[in-house]
Amino acid sequence: MCGIVGYVGPGDAVSVLVEGLSRLEYRGYDSAGVAVLNGRGVETRKLAGRIADLRELLTRDPVHGKCGIGHTRWATHGAPTDSNAHPHIDCTGTLALVHNGIIENADVLRRRLEQDGHRFQTETDTETLVHLIEESPGETLEERVIAALDHVEGTYGIAVVAEADRGKIVVARRGSPVLLGVGDGEFLIASDASAVLGHTRSVTPDGYRVLDLEAREQDRAVDDIEWDLDAIALGGYPHFMLKEICEQAETVRSTLRGRLLAADGTARLNGLNLTPAECNSIGRIVIVACGTSWHAGLVGRHVIEELSGIPVSVEYASEYRYRRQLRVPGTVTIAISQSGETADTLEALRAAKATGSKVLGLVNVVGSTIAREAQGGIYLHAGPEIGVASTKAFTSQVVALLLLGLYLGRRRGLSVEDGRALVAHLLALPELVERTLAIEPEVRALATRYADAPNALYLGRGLTFPVALEGALKLKEISYIHAEGYPAAEMKHGPIALIDENMPVVCLAPRDAIYAKVVSTMQEVKARGGRIIAITSEGPDDLSRLVDHQIAVPAAAPLLSPVLTVIPLQLLAYHIAVLRGCDVDRPRNLAKSVTVE
Ligand code: G6P
What does the pLDDT average to over 231-256? Predict the structure, then answer.
């Protein structure tokens, strides 16, 4: 995710900014830049690339000043290019700004500003902010920033400098963190503390003011920071995997942000690049993916078929690419990939394109190869995923597929009432994720009971079959316990032979239309002495005589249930792996992004 740093004081701002930016590298980024004030207007140096590239640029083309701002960008609106990198400057070149977050009404603002004569140099939502401040009235920079923010919808953490108000950085935030580091005669600002710790832990509360959006002065206490840098990168969590599991209420919200149209009961997916005529003529959808993304694809098949009536098949990308690709008119192929770089998925996308299929990408990393080669798609906006075992990307992929199902469904006969009901369920989903995460202590206790199991079986049916596969994959990836996911009713055709009192069987049983069938399977397990862990949804206590343990997630609309039922399975795998002393974030033999065949 993007990072912000700023410095004003007696030292050289550029070296402090670059050091701060390098401390933010762990958050993931694709471009970086700085802007300083030095009496000759605002000078910027920025590029798509690493901090090392920025250092090199600054050596070739140095710039100095005592007040400046810097940024690491993780692209959301617009590809990672030199010009889209922050800081952004206004038409006069005397105002510079960096921004984290998403400006939801950027399109409307941009059209209006362009009509008023502003010249845009980038594709970013952020640039609207700098032009808004440019034309806003006010004696001081802070007055102009406050006036500009009045027009803005969305989330932001921003830092602004202006030649007319030298020696000052104006910072504003809504929903995106920015903190103030108070040093000895100098001030730093940053999106997280790791960027300032090299400079200050001591505090002198002079020389800054905190205002609300009505310009009323606020009282803020100054805190001392005691964490070390590694702990801050992890935000206080012991592992990235746990951090990313716990972020899911926010990442699901982020995937949904600005994409739900409540009155029309549909989704806004501008990046899809499908015309209404193309939507109407889709004859089939083929999903290609690997690993966890393939599991999300299986959920997507169910969701898209249910909502739109379009037939969907889900292919392992590595298998698809070596089969004869059929040229079927009206085919849309969707590549699902967190990284956007998985070699098999990329080649499957290319192969599909060669048959004349329209190709779309469902990708987390903006500007990645799959994102660039697809003709349209949906970005997940889940932020960088660092833990090798994918967690938050899966839930965001499922949410993006729900948005796609809703969008296609509404064009293909789903009623406005049903669309509105789904929109309402999706809006409530982050809150349900939050409540699901609260069951962590129960799952941790359960993990202690099963950390020594040599094998585990995961059963699900319908929408929860892919969740069973994903739960088993998580467990085997990070704890090295052999685990299998199976369709619940298929158990009797083979795996039932494995069941005895040493075999934990995780049964996914949210209370949906197929609940009674899954309960029957649990009875078959019980009759063979298996240990049952039921992942169910809140409801009457009708399982306690049948199962050994139950974890209840909040009740949700059936199509949304995979987003919730997968969370206890992620936590279970995580805690079992920790108890077994495994290296959770770097499991043996696995890679985060598999760019070889
Ligand atoms: C690797 C990772 C998995 C991931 C898979 C597909 O195997 O370890 O977590 O699901 O690749 O990656 P992608 O980036 O294409 O989603």
Answer: 88
